[in-house]
Amino acid sequence: MDKSSFEQLYLQQLPGLYRLAMSILHHRDDAQDAVQQSVLEAWKRVNHIQCGKEKAYLARIVINECHNIQRRRQRVTPVFAFPEQNKDNLTAEVCALKESLNAIPEKLRTPFLLVYMEGYSEKEAAEALGITLYSVKSRLKRSKQKLKIELGEEDAR
Amino acid sequence: MKDNFRVKLQAIYGEPPEELENLIHWQILSLPDSEGGKITMKKPIKFRIAIAIAALMGIMAIAYAATNWVNLNWKGEKVENAPREQESQDMDLITKMNSALFGAPDEYYCVVLSKSSEDVSTRTKLSRSDSLSALDGTPLMRVPDISFSGTTEVELDYQCGEHGEYVLADEEENNGFTLRKYAIAPENEVVTGYLVQYWENEKVVKSIQSRLTPSKTHMFSFRAEGNVDTQVVTVPGMDEALWITRNGKTSLKMIRKLEQPVTVKAAPESSLGEFDGTIAYGYELITVNNFTFDECEQYFQVAIP
Known about the structure:
heterodimer, A: 157 residues, Rna Polymerase Sigma Factor, Chain: A, Arc Repressor Mutant, subunit A, 0% strand, B: 305 residues, alpha+beta, 34% strand
């Protein structure tokens, strides 16, 4: 893959990768760093990218970079703490959704967002996360249950 | 509807700033050519190996697709209703987990069911009587004493924060699953939430959930689509309250600021390593599901301003 194709691929995936990083790091600068740092890592292994699996591959690299950043900076954002209340001018409904998402563990939130926010298939999400398809299905089910509790739609045991 | 939901999710995390695109462009320009160009400079032996690996992967992919189509497992055995069998196994384990959870009344603990290092399910419970008595009589999260006729079971779970300091107390392997019981250190016995569920005919019909939250959240969830109706109401002792009817189901949400924030120590998450921090909860958010308005008037003194 040449640089031009690589750049085209990356820029095409950029919005999704950025949002994925934001959902993990909850910090704009950190999310930008994660995406930028993942470029080099992705280029190093560009020959290993299988055709049709580019999206999942790049997502996996970004997720790993996010975790690297978290470890390096020893910074944890508690899931409930979003210090800037509605600086993005989100509607009340979206704010509620945001709070609910942040209240569920990252392990459940990330596959949920990959599938429902970025349109990954369950298989792609499994590849991006390095887990089995069964685990993705299980986590999606649990995340939906937790979100329903958080949003007060129904009770779940 | 799916696209609408996706748009809302994307709105939460936003779009990348414009300068990021430029930065990536210049970053890629500065990358060494050798990585992307190596494939054209491979020695013939390495190229043949790459082709062989690709062919093998192709064969494996076809085999995998074939086994899935005819519902065989990797031993070649035909599997009937495999997902249901797995579900049944999971339910047995979850039942066992619940038994472990409620089996020792004088302990605080969290029970985690894992498979292959992934958590399948987690339940948390506090049941130590001295802490319950400490909870009672304080302004912090009084559990309402409400009963309904026809209710076959009432279940009360306390939450000791998602980030309590848990210590592994017991571990058991069963059918590839691991059941771990964690005890919580006494100094971290801080109740940060509860869930009351009312059961009828093995189904939850009503619930009351309270949880502490660090920031004041407008958790008045409603959606533009569907049959939704909302009504601002007042509840004594609460700062804000909203009555919501959605698709025939009702919710009452209310929030109040705590007189004193509750601080808990945050435990490390596995992917992050050691962390020493605290979370300060300053608000209590209560969600009451499937109570009628009359019941909310009766038990929570709900009123329309």
